[in-house]
C-alpha cells in the first residue's frame, strides 16, 4: 500500500515523497503471498455481468466499512491494470481475459492471484518506486507524529540498527501498515 501510494502520488506530480519503513524486506506481502496476494476486482472474464455497486456490497459484507468498500470497488479495475502494466503475471484464458476464482468471501469469481507464495505485487511496485528515485528510509521505526497548531509537521523515528533518532519534517503522512512484519525480518 505504501509503495502504491508513493507511486501514484508521483504520477500525480508530487515529488517531495519519502517512504519510511521498519524493514523493506519484511512483511506478509513480501514473504508469504497468502491472501495478501489475492486481488479482488470487477469480473473481467466471461459473460457474467458485474458492477461497482455489487462488488462494494460483497466487499462490505465481511465487516468492511461501506464507504471504503465502495472506494475499493470503484478503483479495482484501474488498480488491477496498473499492476498488470508493471508486470505482475496474473492468469489469463486463451482469449486474453483475466480470469478469476471463487473464494469464501466472493462467489462471483472476482479473485485473482499471480500464484501461491508470490511476491510479484510488492516487487513490481517497489521496482516502479525505485525507478522514480523515490527515497526509502529503511530500518526506521516511527514512534511519534509531530504536530503544531497547523496539524502534522513531522515524524520522529528510531533507526533500528544504530539506535539513533531520526526526525523527518513533513506536512502530510500516509500510514500504510501491514501484517506481522517482524516475523519475517531479514528473511528475503
Task: Outline the fold blueprint.
Layout: H1 2-11, E1 19-20, H2 28-31, E2 39-40, H3 52-60, H4 66-86, E3 111-112, H5 120-131, E4 136-137, E5 140-148, E6 151-159, E7 165-169
Parallel strand pairs: 1-4
Antiparallel strand pairs: 2-3, 5-6, 6-7
Helix pairs in contact: 1-5, 3-4
Characterization of this structure:
With about 190 residues, this protein is of the alpha+beta class. Helices cover about 30% and strands about 15% of the residues. It has helices at about 1-10, 30, 50-60, 65-85, 120-130; strands spanning about 20, 40, 110, 135, 140-150, 150-160, 165-170. Strands 5-6-7 form a 3-stranded antiparallel β-sheet, with no helix packed on it. A two-stranded parallel ribbon has the order 1-4. Strands 2-3 form a two-stranded antiparallel sheet. Helix 1 packs parallel to helix 5 (about 120-130) and helix 3 (about 50-60) packs across helix 4 (about 65-85). The longest helix has 21 residues, at about 65-85. The two termini are about 20 Å apart. The mean pLDDT is about 85.
Amino acid at each position: 500500500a505504501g509503495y502504491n501510494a508513493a507511486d501514484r502520488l508521483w504520477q500525480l506530480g508530487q515529488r517531495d515523497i519519502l517512504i519510511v519503513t521498519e524493514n523493506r524486506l519484511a512483511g506478509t506481502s513480501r514473504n508469504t503471498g497468502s491472501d495478501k496476494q489475492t486481488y479482488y476486482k470487477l469480473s473481467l472474464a466471461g459473460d457474467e455481468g458485474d458492477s461497482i455497486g455489487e462488488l462494494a456490497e460483497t466487499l462490505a459484507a465481511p465487516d468492511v466499512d461501506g464507504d471504503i468498500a465502495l472506494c475499493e470497488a470503484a478503483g479495482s479495475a484501474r488498480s488491477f491494470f496498473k499492476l498488470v502494466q508493471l508486470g505482475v503475471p496474473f492468469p489469463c484464458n486463451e482469449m486474453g481475459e483475466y480470469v478469476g476464482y471463487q473464494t469464501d468471501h466472493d462467489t462471483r469469481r472476482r479473485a485473482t492471484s499471480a500464484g501461491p507464495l508470490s511476491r510479484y505485487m510488492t516487487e513490481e511496485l517497489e521496482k516502479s518506486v525505485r525507478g522514480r528515485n523515490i527515497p526509502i528510509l529503511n530500518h526506521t521505526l516511527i514512534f511519534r507524529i509531530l504536530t503544531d497548531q497547523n496539524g502534522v509537521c513531522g515524524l520522529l523515528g528510531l533507526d533500528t540498527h544504530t539506535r539513533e533518532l531520526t526526525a523527518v519534517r513533513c506536512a502530510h503522512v500516509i500510514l500504510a501498515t501491514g501484517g506481522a512484519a517482524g516475523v519475517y525480518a531479514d528473511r528475503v
